[in-house]
Write a structure and sequence with these properties.
The protein is built from eight helices and twelve strands. With 256 residues, it is an alpha+beta fold. The protein folds into three domains: 46 residues, no CATH class; 66 residues, 2-Layer Sandwich (Dna Ligase, domain 1); 100 residues, D-amino Acid Aminotransferase, Chain A, domain 1 (2-Layer Sandwich), CATH 3.30.470. A hairpin with a 2-residue loop joins β8 and β9. α3 crosses α4. The protein is globular, with a radius of gyration of 20 Å.
């Protein structure tokens, strides 16, 4: 019989044993990566190493531009990933045909609302991007002034949702001064969350929903981790539930 699979649960051990990992070994917990190291996940997958959470969910959590490609059918119309000026000039024409004026850009690796910027027009974005002021890639999206922001925390069987609102800043993130209040999800919103998680292979998630003026709901962003300042769950319970999900996935992998 071969050696039993190794179970790696911390990044220091992962780095130390990286080149010896092989098919059947398991890495549990998010892999800590520097910008540009994302292909390491592909190498691990190619060698048959199981990642918990999935490599797909870890990449989507890190890269908003990748989310735009992965979740196109769930995002608001005209949400685009811009990787170069050619794509941006194409977007100018697309937005022009829809008479879109104000737009929002999102930096690829920023969270808590710190990489979100509002522009008076897409031409303004092009001017700044062409001078290198806006780092590429970034996410481009029409500005929806009347949409509501709902944060959903899903940890296996645990779910809670709360609306975030900031009357003095279009960024509703609590980090930017927003306030929160519990809210109930509709069946359609709950189904949307589950569909997004399934597409991105998220075992648990923090999901931001955009609810438009006509009550249609779209995905804003999704992440494996996020602030729980507005949630009722405590940090201790949160950590316990995440650890339990990791353990469950690990046991299922060993049994299967």
């Amino acid at each position: 019989m071969g050696a039993p699979p190794r179970i790696i649960t911390d990044n220091d051990t992962l780095r130390a044993q990286y080149h010896t990992l092989t098919s059947g070994d398991i890495v549990t917990g998010r892999v800590r990566l520097k910008p540009g190291e994302e292909p390491l996940l592909l190498d691990l997958l190619d060698r048959g190493v199981l990642l918990i959470p999935s490599a797909l969910s870890q990449l989507a959590s890190r890269l908003k531009s990748f989310q735009t490609k992965l979740f196109t059918s769930f995002l608001p119309p005209l949400t685009l990933a811009i990787h170069d000026l050619h794509e941006l000039t194409d977007a100018i024409s697309v937005y022009g045909r829809k008479a879109t004026e104000k737009v929002v850009t999102k930096h690829d690796r920023r969270n808590a609302g710190m990489g979100v910027h509002l522009w008076s027009s897409i031409e303004e974005v092009y001017t700044q991007a062409s001078f290198g002021v806006i780092p590429l890639p970034f996410v481009l999206q029409p500005f929806y002034p009347d949409c509501r922001d709902i944060r959903v925390v899903i940890l296996d069987g645990y779910e809670e949702a709360y609306q975030r609102h900031n009357p003095h800043n279009f960024r509703n993130n609590l980090h930017c001064g927003g306030k929160s209040a519990p809210c109930e999800l509709s069946r359609a919103q709950r189904d949307l969350c589950r569909q997004v998680m399934e597409r991105g292979k998220f075992p648990y998630a923090h999901i931001d929903l955009m609810v438009m003026a006509d009550n249609s709901t779209f995905l804003g962003e999704i992440n494996l981790r996020g602030g729980i300042k507005g949630a009722s769950i405590t940090p201790a319970e949160y950590g316990t539930r995440v650890a339990a999900i990791h353990q469950k996935c690990q046991q299922e992998a060993l049994a299967g």
